[in-house]
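User: quick one, fold this
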Amino acid sequence: MRTLETLLGGEWVTTGEWIDVHDPADVRAPVARVPALSPKDVTRAYDHAERGFALWKRTSPFDRARVLTDAARLIRGRLDAIAADVTAENGKTLTEARGEAGKAADFLDYYAGLARQGYGTLLHDARPDTRTHTQREPIGVILVISPWNDPLITPARKLAPLLATGNAAVFKPATETPASGLHLARALHDAGLPAGVLNVVTGRTAEIEEALLDDPRITGITFTGSNAVGNRIRRRLADRNVRFQGELGGKNASVVLKDADLAAAAKGVAAASFGQAGQRCTATSRVIVERPVYDAFARLLVAEVEALTVGPGTDPATTLCPLSSPRQRDSVLADLDRAVEQGATVLTGGTADTEGDRAHGCYVRPTVLAEVTPATAIWREEVFGPVLALRAVDDFAAAVAAVNDCDYGLAAAVFTRDLGAAYRFADEAECGQVAVNTTTTGWDVHLPFGGFHDSGTAYKEQGEEVLRFSTRVKTVAVHFGA
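Assistant:
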């Protein structure tokens, strides 16, 4: 078992307390351990970040860009080793892990390019001999809290823009998957990021939550995770002038209209639903099908799902990996049991997979449910696993209504050959991300990302939109006359 260090104040440190990291493909023995920091260590992290910010905000944007570009190069050079650790602690396939590492490097490259541009606008001024402009400045020390499902790409998506714009960060990776985030931190450190600009807090949340969330030097928190935790953080910030960027839950729907290419739709829905074992915030978990093609589509979809190969992420033959932890596996199985109790029919899957060596892992067979109604809990509540629910509707209007009859609003897709229906769906779907004839997943680094309603906050991630979170706007008027 490897012992990993964490990054505080530009130094790699350990403590006397440890957290074991387990492989969800075989949970019998830990694969690594990381330091379990104390509340005092967290305060030290903010001390370092405060000093790091004072230096980094005055660092040339071109020097900031160089650090991000060099870190991206280092990640690509270490891609196989990083992907192996992502798979070992998260369970996803090596193909998915390599893709995640490559995309993390893409985020660093994209924001390196953006760092070289000026952020501001030249404005007309009613006063004579006066020129006015706006400029964007970093907001300060930002707390980054990332989830276990995308343990490398999510912190890269969050850290790259805030570092590019001159902020400092205290980064809390998920307890289940800290090694991936430490790879990102090491690449940035090795690329020359000054001491204190990035500090990584590995620890048990219950033990360090107060020190992590209540430090008066926090100017912003960016969080990806459950609504329960996100709302708890939001309430904790209610009387403080701290920005909160939340990417929360989703119950994403794909609509299959009667004129769609059904085979292509079945492939697209299966890919969106069962990649990473459904553990994506944008994974399709509801499918709404026009009634005339419901039976034909269901047969095609079940065939796609039953062709998946369940196994460990290290096996090249695997196309559906284990869930991230025993807790997550048991939660998904409980949701399935409740769905059946409420009248859902299992078309395929529906149980744990404990065959052979999989008996020691966190495997759930890919599942398609039918006879699901709006009153069925699994139609409305996020499952975050390899589970897909089907429902028939009479027409386009009923399909849009079914998509929008949801507390969440992250992503939706429609499959159709009708251009008018495609554009009407894009206009009427109450979601932050809308796809036509493609998957609800797969949004690139330069595309603004974030949901409506209970899926998130007003601050989007990705693209230039994220600058609204990581910078503040200053207006400057210069009088140059006599």
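User: anything notable?
Assistant: The longest strand covers residues 26-35.
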